[in-house]
Specification:
five-stranded mixed sheet, alpha/beta, globular, seven-stranded mixed sheet, Rossmann fold, 20% strand, 12 helices, 14 strands
Length: 328
C-alpha cells in the first residue's frame, strides 16, 4: 500500500475513472499539457489522449456550460476550475443549469458531472485564490458538495462523485494537497457520499469539522486528551450537502457539548446549518452548554501577511472546549 499525497491520490482516482469508463472525460484550463495549476492531472492527457483530457480556454462559464452539455448527452465530465474563487465567473451555469436541469426536464436529462476546484486558505495566496464559498453551493438545491480532508478519503470520495448520478461540487483543500502522505490502497475504493466519519471517539465534547481544518482539529483533540484530560469526539463531515445529521445527533446526544470548526465565514456558514440541525433535533435537550462556532470572521480574505490571524486554529478549539466542559 503506497503512501500518497492528496494530489497523487486525486490523480489516481481520475486515472482509474478514465480507464474504467469511456464516458468519463476531464476538462479545464491547463489541465492537459501542464497537468493543472497544482498538477493534479499530471500525465493524464499523455496517457488517455487530448480528446479525454481537454485543455479549455480561460472561460469558466464556458467550461461548466460545455460540461453540462456533455452530461445531457450521456457523458460524465469532470470539470476543473483553477481556484474556487473563480467559480463565480461560472455562477450562472452552475446555479441555473448544472443544479437545475435534471429537475427542470422532469428527469429527462440527468446531469452526471463533477466540478473540481481547489479552495481555502493557508498557502499565502491572494484573495480570490483563498476563499471558502462552500456554503453558496450547499445552499443551492440540486447540488451535492463534497470536501475531503486527506489523501485516502480524497481518492475514495472523488471516485464516488464521478460515479454518482447527481451533479457534484468537489472542493479540494489546497493547503492539504502536499502537506502529508497517507496510505492509499492500490485497489480502487469508494466512500458513501453524504456520510460523515467519526475520526476520534470521546465522551466530553463533540468537534465537527471538514477539509483542511481537520488537521488542527486533530491536533487539538490530542492536546485536550494529553494535557487537559478532556476526551473529544471528532467528526469529519466529508459532505456538506447533504449533511449527515444522524451522526451529528448521535455524537452530541452522548457528549452534551459541540464545537463547529471551519474556515468559511460565520454568518450563514456550514456551522450555522449544523447548529440549526442540532437545535431542531432530539440532541437539543441533551446540551449542557451552548453550541460554539469557530470560523473565519465575516470579512474579505486578507492579505497573506495576516492570514494566520484570520483562520481559526487549534488554540481556538482548546479554549472553547475547556470553556464548555467547565460550563455551569
Amino acid at each position: 500500500m503506497a503512501k500518497r499525497t492528496m494530489v497523487e491520490a486525486l490523480n489516481l482516482a481520475l486515472d482509474e475513472a478514465l480507464a474504467a469508463d469511456e464516458q468519463v472525460c476531464l476538462m479545464g484550463q491547463d489541465i492537459g499539457v501542464n497537468g493543472g495549476v497544482f498538477r493534479v492531472t499530471k500525465g493524464l492527457q499523455a496517457k488517455h489522449g487530448a480528446d479525454r483530457v481537454i485543455d479549455s480556454p480561460l472561460a469558466e462559464c464556458g467550461i461548466i456550460g460545455t460540461a453540462v452539455g456533455m452530461a445531457v448527452y450521456g457523458m460524465k465530465p469532470v470539470a476543473e476550475i483553477q481556484f474556487s474563487g473563480f467559480t463565480m465567473q461560472a455562477f450562472d451555469q452552475i446555479e441555473q443549469n448544472m443544479a437545475r436541469l435534471h429537475n427542470r426536464t422532469q428527469g429527462r436529462f440527468p446531469i452526471r458531472m463533477v466540478l473540481r476546484t481547489p479552495y481555502g486558505g493557508g498557502i499565502r495566496a491572494v484573495e480570490h485564490h483563498s476563499e471558502s464559498r462552500e456554503a453558496y453551493w450547499a445552499h443551492t438545491p440540486g447540488l451535492k458538495v463534497v470536501i475531503p480532508s486527506g489523501p485516502r478519503n480524497a481518492r475514495s470520495l472523488l471516485a464516488a462523485a464521478i460515479a454518482d448520478p447527481d451533479p457534484i461540487i468537489f472542493y479540494e483543500p489546497k493547503s492539504v494537497y502536499r502537506a502529508f502522505r497517507e496510505e492509499v490502497p492500490d485497489a480502487p475504493e469508494s466512500l458513501e457520499i453524504g456520510k460523515a466519519q467519526v475520526v476520534h471517539e470521546g465522551a466530553d465534547v463533540t468537534i465537527v469539522s471538514f477539509g483542511a481544518m481537520m488537521r488542527p482539529a486533530m491536533e487539538a483533540v490530542e492536546d485536550l486528551a494529553e494535557v487537559h484530560g478532556i476526551e473529544a469526539e471528532l467528526i469529519d463531515l466529508l459532505t456538506v450537502s447533504p449533511i449527515d445529521t444522524e451522526t451529528l445527533v448521535a455524537s452530541v446526544t452522548k457528549t452534551g457539548r459541540c464545537i463547529i470548526f471551519h474556515e468559511g465565514h460565520q454568518t450563514c456558514g456550514i456551522g450555522a446549518e449544523v447548529a440549526a440541525r442540532l437545535a431542531e433535533s432530539g440532541a437539543f435537550e441533551y446540551l449542557v452548554a451552548p453550541l460554539r462556532r469557530l470560523t473565519a470572521p465575516d470579512l474579505p480574505y486578507p492579505f497573506f501577511q495576516v492570514e494566520q490571524h484570520f483562520l481559526p486554529d487549534a488554540e481556538d478549539i482548546l479554549a472553547a472546549a475547556k470553556e464548555l466542559v467547565e460550563w455551569t
